[in-house]
Amino acid sequence: MNNQYSKLKVSSKLLIVITALAIPTIASATNGLFSHGYGARQSGIAGSGVAFAQDPLIAAINPAGVVQLKEKSYEIDVQYFSPRREYTISPSPFSGAFPPFPGPTVESGAETFIIPAFATNWQLANDAAFGLALYGNGGMNTEYDASKTPFGFGTFGAAAVPGADTRTGIDYSQLFLNLSYSKMFSGGNGSWGIAALINYSQFEAQGLAGFAPFSVNPANVSDNKVDTDFGFGVRLGVQYDVSANTSLAASYQSEISNTFDDYSGLFPQNGKLNIPATLQVGFATKVGGGTITADIQHIFYADTEGVGDPGSTGLTTACIPSAPFSPLPVAMGTNCLGSTPGLGFGWDDMTVFKLGYTWSSSTSMTWRVGFSFGDQPVQAEDITFNILAPGVIEQHYTAGFSRTLASGNELSAALMIAPEECVSGPDLFTPGQGVEICMNQIAINVGYSF
Question: Fold for domain 2-449?
Fold first, then answer.
């Protein structure tokens, strides 16, 4: 009893420390808003493994896998994440009327993030288990310094607005506390699970003061520092063992509502920026002394307020701006910023195909490789606003390993490389002018289980 109590105290302290470290750092995910994988083991196989439980962080993609672990363990993971983002404006005969202005490529700052995660599980006597996991789902982050833009004007002309922040970008991050329960089927050929999700999100926008005339609430468009909100959701999962060598699994996470009051003039319905629902299905099968994992993940961006529908193209077609463009005191129209239905980033749904292979070369060494691919969600017609959120990555190449130490604990590591992907489209404000946004990424995970 005392031993269990001391382990619970250790777990609680770790949770507090990791929560404090994680809140300000989680940003710039890889499949749009979503991480490609949670922890070194998932990352090593490109985020596949919905039917392949390797550690308690399985709860992040399928809570049914927690009971499959059989033994209690703790998992601590730290990720070094480096996204490189940039945009380029090509000129037209009308260039110079409105920002962004054509010129050299502008690169985003803030290229290094440290992202911790933690998970543990408790096995119960009746073929059931509880799980607890803390992790970052992802987010968006950009920071374009005005000094790097033509004439020092700022990406969207914030330097022309007295008192406005001339740096341009957003900082959007999500932290999840996942509390799961899972149970084996009565026949022992699979399991089901359910996870209650408590979400903490924070958002900040800078350098968007030039859009105030297009907002129904111009005071809450930009430069209002960090705003936060809590959201709640659920993740459901199931795993079925077709045979001793093959398992099928599926998991669904609900949409989670977030509202940022300090940016009620930027996002639809007075500040809605919801986290999309997602569905992941897949199988795991033993082949050639190892395990192949193949998953399909679908992320429902298009129907999600703030991220999906509608896109920014409507800003110039169904919104009457305020001064200095008209005598109105504030903008008016259904497609103005902050209105209903309002405007978002215009992202389309994203389907990601993930493939991994895990094998052991000895009793103490396990190796992993993986690859994933999905059409990025940014639509060309909404490219202007997506300078702020260039979530255009499509491919991930991954590799990793786990080594059992003399103590019996395990050290894991993984490398993820996402090659550069670019998307081009027409500028929203200047006819004939083009916008290109690009991104590439690298991530290194180190995990320790005991």
Answer: Porin (2.40.160)
